[in-house]
């Protein structure tokens, strides 16, 4: 896979999934620390990530993807393996 994974890219997807401007999402955003990142928001985000990056996120993994840095690291690893 050749797509770069960066914080701005993930913020844009978060904003799209949650209906907010990406500039309103803090770099240190985490699950239940940002109003839109609740249980439903988490599912919406993961679906958007799967579609954009063409990855399949298993249940065991989705429970670990609870911070911006964890999501970026996972996507980078998924691309290296792909």
What does this structure look like?
There is one protein chain. This protein has about 80 residues and is an all-alpha fold. It contains four helices and no strands. α1 (about 5-20) crosses α2. The radius of gyration is 12 Å and the shape is globular. The N and C termini lie close together (about 5 Å). The mean pLDDT is about 90.
Number of structural domains? 1
Topology order in helix (H) and strand (E) letters: HHHH
Oligomeric form of this entry? single chain
* Biggest sheet features: none
- The overall average pLDDT, rounded, is 90
Strand content: under 5%
Rg over C-alpha atoms, rounded to the nearest angstrom: 12 Å
Number of helices: 4
Shape, per Cα inertia axes: globular
CATH class: Mainly Alpha
The CATH topology: Non-ribosomal Peptide Synthetase Peptidyl Carrier Protein, Chain A
Q: Give the terminus-to-terminus CA distance.
A: 6 Å
CATH architecture classification name: Orthogonal Bundle
* Beta-strand segment tally: 0
User: Helix/strand-derived class?
Assistant: mainly alpha
Poorly predicted runs are none
CATH homologous superfamily assignment: ACP-like
List the helices and strands and how they pair.
Layout: H1 7-18, H2 39-53, H3 59-62, H4 68-81
Helix pairs in contact: 1-2
Summarize the structure.
By secondary structure, the chain is mostly helical. Helix content is about 55%, strand content about 0%. It starts with 6 loop residues before the first helix and ends with a helix.
Give short descriptive properties of this protein.
0% strand; 82 residues; Non-ribosomal Peptide Synthetase Peptidyl Carrier Protein, Chain A; 4 helices; mainly alpha
């Amino acid at each position: 896979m050749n797509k770069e994974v960066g914080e701005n890219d993930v913020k844009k997807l978060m904003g799209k999934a949650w209906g907010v401007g990406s500039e309103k999402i803090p770099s240190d955003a985490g699950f239940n620390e940002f109003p839109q990142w609740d249980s439903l928001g988490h599912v919406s985000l993961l679906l958007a990530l799967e579609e954009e990056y063409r990855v399949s996120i298993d249940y065991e993994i989705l429970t670990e993807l609870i911070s911006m840095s964890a999501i970026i690291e996972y996507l980078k690893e998924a691309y290296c393996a792909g």
